[in-house]
Amino acid sequence: MVAKLRTLACSAVLLALVLALARTFTGGGTLGRPGPLHGWYLADGLLFGAALLLALLGRGLPERAVRALVLLGGVAVAATGLLAPPRTSDDAYRYAWDGQVQAAGISPYAYTPVDPALAHLRAQAPALFPPHAANAPCVGWDLHHAAQICTHINRPTVHTIYPPVAEFWFLLLRLLGGTVQVAQLLGALLAIGVTAVLLRMLRVRRAPAAWAGLWAWCPGVAIWSVNDAHVDTLGVLLALLGLAVAASGRRPGVAGALLGAATAVKLIPAVVIPGALARRRGRLRLTAATVSTFAVAYLPYVLASGVGVIGFLPGYLQEEGYDQGGRFALLALLPVPQARLGLLAAAVLAGVSLAVVLHGDPLRPWRGALTVTGAALLLATPSYPWYSLLLLALAALEGRWEWLGVPVAGLVTYLYEGDVQRPAYLAALGLVLAGLAWRSRSAAFGLRRAARPAPRPSAHPRPSADPGPSADAARAADAASSASVPGSTRAG
After folding, report:
1. 339-357 tens-digit pLDDT
2. Alpha-carbon torsion (330, 336, 340, 345), positive or negative
3. 145: β partners
4. Is the pTM for the entire model greater than 0.85?
5. Where are the alpha helices (DSSP H) in 136-282?
6. d(CA 412, CA 237)
């Protein structure tokens, strides 16, 4: 009876979350007029937290019920992002343009959107280049004026920045219609696909399925993956699949190919590779497959555009202040010259990655991947919250709620800019440290309570000359067992 009441309560909160998100997207708030978004973002976050708590606290909800709630709730949350055009990012317009350019047989790295050589393509895309009189204003948060051209594409005077697998995705977008609405629909399908993969991976681990709700019900997924249609979600899906295959230890080449493809979506998923390399067996094949997949994806574009495939990446790093160290808000607190903060960040990240490779859990590569991803975001302190989508998925898989502060810090920085970046990321770092401290105390308390006499040794032990496979099996059984115990350190 109690379980049914809690299931009904969680369902009611999820319904309220869906209604609040619907209002978030249809209430008139945009990046250019963010006022209406503030209150709704707060309401969305509170309802999301309440739903997650109801699903996880105590003994949690029945697994069959919670799997249905996570999947159906995730579908409903994602669907809200389809109710309006993009509200806080205009990146999807660049996706549509790159797809159109490729469909015309032209490399997306060859020309900028306002290049005279592409005038015939611009004339075929009034949705991206709205008709504009010479002296008429080009006004709107998602409108940009360059070379006497008005367009929804941001940075229209620079080349595309997206890696090749993302460009393949944009070509698919063009073949399916090439509109922003299609991009949003594809984003929703990707978000739901990530939810399904998380549910499957958690079930294999015998971990609570409710943790998948950390991704599926997160308002940020509806905002960044669906409404804004960021291609990052494709990288998240491929990275999760790669980690799942790596955990099995059976097909390192397939795992490497998936991780290489994920990295060729938007480079950020490269931070999960150290977690997959924690397994010594097959490490060389995984590395070779990752590098070769990444290289092969770039090959046709390199043949067409040469070094132009680098695109706007150097300009982006300069624009964001990474080249001179101005973006590293937390590292700037250290007595280190600003110009050297980039080198310091790279050294710290390399050290964390090496530690994960050498000491990570090969049966749970997502744990090391979460560590490296979280460290990278706290070092880089980006102002784009959708960079944390990968972190959200990994935190859901590992059951680490304390990492939720990082995407919130990115969102606050994105909306308010100015001087909020450092305090926002300091708060996120504090939440991570508090979560780790609480988890350590809980684990120690749980171990003391659960302490039992050691089992008596068998009178006729059977020695094993080759402990490798059996040791792996024992570790897998231990991981599955501990993941199913509430409060277990392995269950996160």
Report:
1. 999 999 999 999 999 999 9
2. negative
3. 150
4. yes
5. 164-175, 180-205, 213-216, 219-220, 232-248, 252-266, 273-276
6. 25
